[in-house]
Amino acid sequence: MNLYNKDYKEVLNNAPKESVDMIFTDPPYKTTKRGNSGGTGGMLKDKNFINGNGGFANNDVIHTDWLKKCYDVLKEKGHIYVMTNNKNLKQMLIDVESVGFKVFKTLIWVKNTAITNMWYMDNHEYIIFARKGRAKKINNNGDKSTLLYDNPKNKLHPSEKPIKMIEQLILNSSNENDVILDPFMGSNSTGMACKNTNRKFIGIELDKSYFSIAKKRVEEKRKEKENEQQTLFGDTN
Known about the structure:
Elements: E1 2-4, H1 8-12, E2 20-25, H2 47-50, H3 65-73, E3 74-84, H4 89-98, E4 102-115, E5 122-131, E6 146-148, H5 163-173, E7 179-182, H6 189-196, E8 200-204, H7 208-233
Parallel strand pairs: 1-8, 2-3, 2-7, 4-6, 7-8
Antiparallel strand pairs: 3-5, 4-5
Helix pairs in contact: 5-6, 6-7
């Protein structure tokens, strides 16, 4: 597992072409004046959320630069999954295809929590599912385009996504020991999903505090594995 506390540009500019098997990411994007689409409570009091920045200092974050770099490092026939919300879906679809990706479809994550709204409460987010080059089928053709996973409790990051949901996507679009990339890993949920499914992981996170959380989760997972081995092979009475 390779974790980088850097800007995605520093890492991906030096990455070998077509060296990644799959990409899953939840990139920063513009939000409403009420804040992040998944934010409630004290999070909405944060200055960046009130200003509609989604907790990121730069409000002009929907762009194609990171997508171009992802396109370069992804292997031919590789799959990419990009999280987004209703406000940004249209532009994100345009951006994804503008760099060369071909969109299969838009998946829907039903998260069983809702944001108060006068025009139907939002209880879902979107996952753009696209490919590079020729089409490759997913490993489980019986899976549906609607993903039912509860919004994580006790989040380590404001926009943290369910590990089990990420695992499902990883299992469908990669094989064991494949390399998975997340250029905006946050608290490292994608990395944990890779650990659980025996994939290699490259995670990039600029924020130092979230990067520290990401590293801590890796260490806790390592200790958990060690304890399991001690239980399996230790002395018994």
